[in-house]
């Protein structure tokens, strides 16, 4: 495809330079068309607009469109590789070990060194994947799970797609027990429009862009549709939906101070209502938890009795009435040294004088 795009200025020189919008329309029709019908319609509109019905080169490449247009070839798995990518990457890699002047006697040795270096690099990547944790950029459980499965390089690709899914909005267009279809597009763009089918039973999703079928990479629109499809089972999609509305509120609220005041007031009112809801839910949980342990007894059946007497520990107190002399003597203390009343041995004046 890059070879055909390279030849556009050569075969369409007049149109290419006289009409500045032709270049964008040409590349947009090729790369942003998600279906065969959409590409054919855009191509026909471009031909009619610029009067290119008799251009032999355009007619020729259109006749073989199923071999190079992404909308036609996206159903075929290519691992994301281009025609020359394999040879270019291998040439770049072996340049560190071989060159055009390497003799045959050294070729085998250098080739083995190149393979060993490749294996060592793979082992380093595997070790890093198993013994380290990548930095997460969102609160999605999906991201944390992917970090445990993918290699670091593949996880970074997935992470970029996951973060990019925040810029897309979804609209349910078809619903059934087995399959739900969602229309997905960027928030501020009308095109391109993607359609994501979410299979309820198998929990699988496929997108009209066929990115996964073409390169086994999950595109952000498929992630957005998958999150929307599992809306009833996961809090992740709720968070995602709130973020979409929050982005729209932020965009409109930043237009002027008046818009800003309205946006902030709306947020504060919403937070206040959520706080009240938290209090109500907490009270309900407390009542439900205590009601399980407190038996419900009718007041008519309640009979009150005196508490049961329990014997105290130790020697029981005597009930004999004491004389007034005993009551008075109870407050006196006797010194064990001088045998006098009114003080104890530590405070005895006689003992202190002898010391």
TrEMBL record:
An example Gene Ontology molecular-function term: zinc ion binding
GO cellular component, one term: nucleus
InterPro entries the record matches: FHY3/FAR1 (IPR031052)
GO biological process: one example: regulation of DNA-templated transcription
Native organism: Pisum sativum
Biological role: Putative transcription activator involved in regulating light control of development.
Source superkingdom: Eukaryota
The entry's keywords: Metal-binding, Nucleus, Zinc, Zinc-finger
Family assignment from sequence similarity: Belongs to the FHY3/FAR1 family.
Compartment list: Nucleus
Record's protein name: Protein FAR1-RELATED SEQUENCE
PANTHER family on file: PROTEIN FAR1-RELATED SEQUENCE, PROTEIN FAR1-RELATED SEQUENCE 10-RELATED
